């Protein structure tokens, strides 16, 4: 028997108006100077300013870094870190989806450990916990607000570095569905399919446990049921709230069972062509699970059942096929592009993409090990 460790932020607030209690928490901890990490859009919408105002009312100084790129870079981390040092900040508040959270984690980790973010690529490479971080989530979702995963693009190598480190876990996560109502359809769809990918990859992972299984299956059920409604009508509060819970459950699953080749391969597309993470995952998901079905068919049959398919008369292989069909139909329903060609991915880049995918820490728990040739074949099938 192997030992499993379960990581999650110590406090997690979910529901409407959770923002106020989050800001009260900053006060209770006695932090006095916050770096708010966000992107230009959320800053322009005034969301970062609102948080800054609420902090000021509680006598807490804050400064805003809004330079986070959709695929946050090593330069973003360095720029945010400089602002943090200049202003002697003692905590970091991220506001946004996965990008600001990952950028904030990078900043907070280097602030506490020194060096540069490249030094921490891989699994548990840091010596000390990062500066205290509060993550306020506006998408559903990467679940980065509650995970120990931090993905930063190294612009010099054109790759996404996977930094999997227990020390980047935020101390507090906030999921307020009212902050998610403004998400456009395409972002709702992409982030929702990312969450589905988290649940499925965690469920077929070699590191799955009964705890992560329960989280993953419940997440799949909720995503299959509610994602189409959240995409169709962004102001559907019930669907938004369900997706906030579902993406959090999927986060609990993959934060502890880790991921697989979908993420390992999607990171390379994101790093190389600067493509949206959720879309890359959604396109690759059925193809990687087709490859995995030779060893994980029974598990994929469970996934089909969780997504609402009647599998009672199906054997494992048929169940796996039904799961793959269900993924495809959900992706189609929420208007995910059909293949990588539509994303301008070039076949000539596959050898280097496959090499980098095999070096990505997220692939270590895929249920079956692939060769370089097999990874290339999956990319080709996904074109
Ligand atoms: Fe993801």
TrEMBL record:
CDD domains: PDDH. PROSITE patterns: ADH_IRON_1 (PS00913), ADH_IRON_2 (PS00060). Residues 188-383 form the Fe-containing alcohol dehydrogenase-like C-terminal domain. Residues 9-177 form the Alcohol dehydrogenase iron-type/glycerol dehydrogenase GldA domain. InterPro entries: ADH_Fe/GldA, ADH_Fe_C, ADH_Fe_CS, Alcohol_dehydrogenase_Fe. Belongs to the iron-containing alcohol dehydrogenase family. This is Alcohol dehydrogenase. It comes from Yokenella regensburgei.
């Amino acid at each position: 028997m192997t030992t499993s460790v379960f990581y999650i932020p110590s406090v997690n607030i979910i529901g409407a108006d959770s923002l106020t209690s989050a800001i009260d928490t900053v006060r209770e901890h006695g932090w006095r100077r916050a770096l708010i990490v966000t992107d230009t859009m959320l800053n322009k919408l005034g969301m970062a300013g609102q948080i800054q105002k609420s902090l000021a009312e509680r006598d807490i100084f804050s400064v805003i870094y809004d330079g986070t790129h959709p695929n946050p870079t090593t330069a973003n981390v360095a720029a945010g870190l400089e602002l943090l040092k200049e202003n002697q900040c003692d905590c970091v508040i991220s506001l946004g989806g996965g990008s600001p959270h990952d950028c904030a984690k990078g900043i907070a980790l280097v602030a506490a450990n020194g060096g540069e973010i490249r030094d921490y690529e891989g699994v548990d490479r840091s010596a000390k916990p990062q500066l205290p971080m509060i993550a306020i989530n506006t998408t559903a979702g990467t679940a980065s607000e509650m995970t120990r995963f931090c993905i930063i693009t190294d612009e010099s190598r054109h790759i996404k570095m996977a930094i999997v480190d227990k020390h980047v876990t935020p101390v507090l996560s906030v999921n307020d569905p009212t902050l998610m109502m403004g998400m456009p359809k395409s972002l709702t769809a992409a982030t929702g399919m990312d969450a589905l990918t988290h649940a499925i990859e965690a469920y077929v992972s070699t590191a799955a446990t009964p705890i992560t299984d329960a989280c993953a299956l419940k997440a799949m059920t909720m995503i299959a049921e509610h994602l189409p409604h959240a995409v169709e009508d962004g102001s559907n509060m019930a669907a938004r709230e369900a997706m906030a819970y579902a993406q959090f459950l999927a986060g609990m699953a993959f934060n502890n069972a880790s991921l697989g080749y979908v993420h390992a391969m999607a990171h390379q597309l994101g790093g190389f062509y600067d493509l949206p993470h959720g879309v890359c995952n959604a396109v690759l998901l059925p193809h990687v699970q087709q490859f995995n079905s030779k060893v994980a068919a029974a598990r994929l049959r469970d996934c089909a059942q969780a997504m609402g398919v009647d599998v009672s008369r199906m054997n494992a292989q048929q169940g796996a096929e039904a799961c793959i069909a269900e993924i495809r139909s959900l992706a189609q329903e929420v208007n995910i592009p059909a293949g990588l060609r539509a994303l301008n991915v070039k076949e000539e880049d596959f050898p280097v993409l496959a090499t980098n995918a095999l070096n990505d820490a997220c692939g270590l728990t895929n249920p079956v090990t692939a060769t370089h040739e097999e990874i290339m074949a999956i990319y080709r099938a996904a074109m």
